[in-house]
Amino acid sequence: MTEWIPDELGEGYQQHTIPLGADPDGEGQVEATLVRRVPAEAYESAVLYVHGFSDYFFQRELAEFFAERGFAFYALDLRKCGRSRREGQTGHYVSDLALYDAELDQALAIIREETGGKPVVLSAHSTGGLVLALWLDRLNKQPGGSTGAGIAGLVLNSPWFDLQGAAWMRTVGTKAIAAVARVKPKSMIKLPHTDAYGSSLHVSAHGEWDFNTAFKPLEGFPVSYGWLTAIRRAHAKLHKGLDVGVPSLVLRSTRTRFARTYNEDVATADAVLDVKQIARWSGCLGDQVTVVPIEGAKHDVFISREEPRKAAYAAVDDWLRIKQLVS
């Protein structure tokens, strides 16, 4: 039996700790945290959601959306992220994104057991989209493939499919970062300070969402050479082409507006990633990819302002029905 305790989200939400043993990256014992919406209705399928960098699961509205359509909802805070980070651990640090396979495999097994083997739709935001895509590609190479493992579909929200910024950062810059990572993987890259995106979200600034800023700082977590090298290796694998084995939906904003401090443009555009890169590389997921741009959406389309948020949910609803993943 899986042991569940009350979650910080309050009534209707519980969490379960997944022990993962000694950290391959040398930061003690690691664990992940599986959160579930306590089922109040009969369910036909399940959803597993994975957050992005400098993020964790707090989006109750997303959980309620899926629950209303007959899904048992679960979310995973990955090792060293959100609820799962322990004292002395470098926030979000992994040297290889494949290390996340351990908690993803265990989370999927728990969900399948609890739901009696019901099909699972995966959902993820930003870096989580890259993590899930590579995990699914590996899963699809195993006997039975992704569908044999119980996966029915993939919904990605502004997935991080390439390194934003100047072109040289994707060539000589990536090589230089990797060179430093071999010597000082956990040293932090000196980047300009920005809280523009975080400020557009939180109720204490210009947003409408209340979240734990220790888990999701407005300025984000610092970026290490080793972690970014792991990301770039993952990007390279994606760019060669994957086969996740199931239908995929990719949501993104229609435009990018980078800024270091908040302005109104940040509230209606992706202030984190280059949406043209998302559009370019989405086809690398496989043969069944649907891409839907959302006018006025932020980086996380599901915590955008009301109008684009409604449009994003409508797009997911349509896609679920077209793919016969909901009745």
Automatic annotation (TrEMBL):
Domain (Serine aminopeptidase S33) ranges: 45-255
InterPro entries: AB_hydrolase_fold, Hydrolase_4, MAG_DAG_Lipase
One Pfam family named in its UniProt record: Hydrolase_4
SUPFAM superfamilies, per the entry: alpha/beta-Hydrolases
Alphabetic keyword roster: Hydrolase
Superkingdom, taxonomy of origin: Bacteria
Signal sequence extent: none
GO molecular-function terms, A-Z: hydrolase activity
Keyword check for Hydrolase: yes
This protein's record includes keyword Lyase: no
PANTHER family: PHOSPHOLIPASE-RELATED
The protein, known as: Alpha/beta hydrolase
Organism for this UniProt entry: Aeromicrobium ginsengisoli
